[in-house]
User: Fold this.
Amino acid sequence: MNESAPPAPAPPVQTSGGFFSVLAGGGLFTGIVTFIFTILFGLGASRLSYVKYGSVFWAVIDFFFASLYYPYYALVLNEPCVAPGMMMGGRRRK
Assistant:
């Protein structure tokens, strides 16, 4: 009886779509859309910061910390605008 070693198993098939697939949990298209949304989200925060402070430094900082800057801006920094005229409905004075 001739005993030989069993054949080596086949290498596993890689099903990952790359970096974006791992990052987004989906395909390449989903990863690209997520990346674009993240960039636009940060650009919005940096634009608000630049208009508020006029500083490129704070705009860059707020680009990277946009998820913290938006609530901070909404709750602390945003000044309510006062509309001219009547704020509530009702009778007009003559």
